[in-house]
């Protein structure tokens, strides 16, 4: 709705529930948006929509990255799938120096773990990212690549790196 290019005053949840969804632009938002209709009807990864223009370029970029990257994500973020796919597409050389962190957060990095007990839901991803970039850019230390995931319900994390798989209880 925020990408419509004009103010949309429709209810967000009503827009999410609208059926058939391809018509929500005209029926609730007031204008036909051809780009939106292509986006919501292009449901197959092999569709031309996802493999040409901007989307095609975005799919190619990770494999061309040569510098270390830091990807911070949350299990409850609607972009998690894209972040995983981005990390997966990095070259092996790039992964050796990159960090991929997945925590117990939503898109806004708010804790989103209902019904689970734990003491380590805090999100310090901004500080982790800062520290990672500080080591890389200021201290000029080459980072060690890792995938660091928070284990919901266990209040622990698993780290996959060149030393292998490490599971540690957080304290």
Automatic annotation (TrEMBL):
Residues 32-107 form the Xaa-Pro dipeptidyl-peptidase-like domain. Pfam families: Peptidase_S15. GO terms for molecular function: hydrolase activity. This is Xaa-Pro dipeptidyl-peptidase-like domain-containing protein.
């Amino acid at each position: 709705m925020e990408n419509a290019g004009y103010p949309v005053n429709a209810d967000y949840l009503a827009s999410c529930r609208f059926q058939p969804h391809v018509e929500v632009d005209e029926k609730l938002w007031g204008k036909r948006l051809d780009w939106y209709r292509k986006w919501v009807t292009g449901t197959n990864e092999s569709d031309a929509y996802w493999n040409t223009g901007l989307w095609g370029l975005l799919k190619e970029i990770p494999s061309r990255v040569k510098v270390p990257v830091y990807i911070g994500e949350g299990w409850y973020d609607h972009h998690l799938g894209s972040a995983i796919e981005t990390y997966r597409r990095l070259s092996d050389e790039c992964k050796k120096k990159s960090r991929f962190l997945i925590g117990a957060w939503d898109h806004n990095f708010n804790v989103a773990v209902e019904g689970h007990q734990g003491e380590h839901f805090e999100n310090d991803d901004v500080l982790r990212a800062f520290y990672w970039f500080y080591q890389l850019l200021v201290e000029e230390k080459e980072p060690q690549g890792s995938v660091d995931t928070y284990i919901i319900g266990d209040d622990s994390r698993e780290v996959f790196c060149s030393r292998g798989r490490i599971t540690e209880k957080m304290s």
